[in-house]
Amino acid sequence: MTTNPIYEHLGYTSLIKDKMVHRLSRARSEPRRVTFQREERISSPLLRRSALKDTPEKQCSYEKIHNFKVNVHTFRGPHWCEYCANFMWGLIAQGVRCSDCGLNVHKQCSKLVPSDCQPDLRRIKKVFSCDLTTLVKAHNTMRPMVVDMCIREIELRGMKSEGLYRVSGFSEHIEDVRLSFDRDGEKVDISASAYADINIIAGALKLYLRDLPIPVITFDLYSTFIQAAKIPNADCRLEAIHEGLLQLPPAHYETLRYLMAHLRRVTMFEKYNLMSAENLGIVFGPTLMQPPEQNALTTLNDMRQQKLVVQLMIEHEDVLF
């Protein structure tokens, strides 16, 4: 761990350093990997993909960087930096504060703090439009509660609903579901007694995914997936999508994996709901993938690739995840 040299002579700094080293070693984990059976004997990409399997190696802790505001913070009363343990001098603009967990540090120290933010529920004011990793860290869950609860309700009573995810529910009712999640969290009632039309629940799920500040397939990886979809060879295309998936943040990866497994189950009822993997790709492509520049022309040009990426992830969910 790097420590500012001017603090080296302070005895308390050693205690803080030991504490931070312990936190770093505990938070550090192996990168998510997917192992291959008899990898040295597998040469064909098709055989290699079929040999992919889930292992505990894919599970890792959700790391989150601290959300320090650009502007320095003015603290009331005396404050000490929670990184270097030294006093924060000055009457105004003494340091910065993480808006998610409340960590107070010098502005210089904010560049050295590890990615170990643990958001405080008291600081999370809403569920919708909240960063995905922030929400799951705050609630200590694998996936956002909205995704879990909506999918559970849809699979309970809506898998045979014609046009599932394509047919829109009443926007006023969908907005009511959104407000209920923001107000009540996991205690919200989305059962049939509250919302008889399953399209309202499906619409709320799509709205949640669409309103994420960072999409499930992140802005940084958008071009990676678009380029993968343009590869003409089917085997190489799947390999490229798989490589892109492994680069997703863990919370995004787990949410996408769970959603694709659900959508694949939806296609098993295609006889009733008329929703094939291609149809679901058309619906969820622009929802899960958004270009970083938010250019309407770019989105229009990439719609075919967006649809294909989601379609392939549904069809090959058991291999890609």
Automatic annotation (TrEMBL):
Biological processes per GO annotation: signal transduction
Alphabetized InterPro entries for the sequence: C1-like_sf, DAG/PE-bd, PKC_DAG/PE, Rho-type_GAP, Rho_GTPase_activation_prot, RhoGAP_chimaerin, RhoGAP_dom
Domain of life: Eukaryota
Positions of the Phorbol-ester/DAG-type domain: 65-117
Main location: membrane
CDD domains to which the protein is assigned, alphabetical: RhoGAP_chimaerin
Bilayer disposition of the protein: Peripheral membrane protein
GO cellular component: membrane
PROSITE patterns cross-referenced by the UniProt entry: RHOGAP, ZF_DAG_PE_2
One GO molecular-function entry: zinc ion binding
Record's keyword terms, sorted: GTPase activation, Membrane, Metal-binding, Zinc, Zinc-finger
Protein's recorded name: Beta-chimaerin
Taxonomic lineage from the root: Eukaryota, Metazoa, Chordata, Craniata, Vertebrata
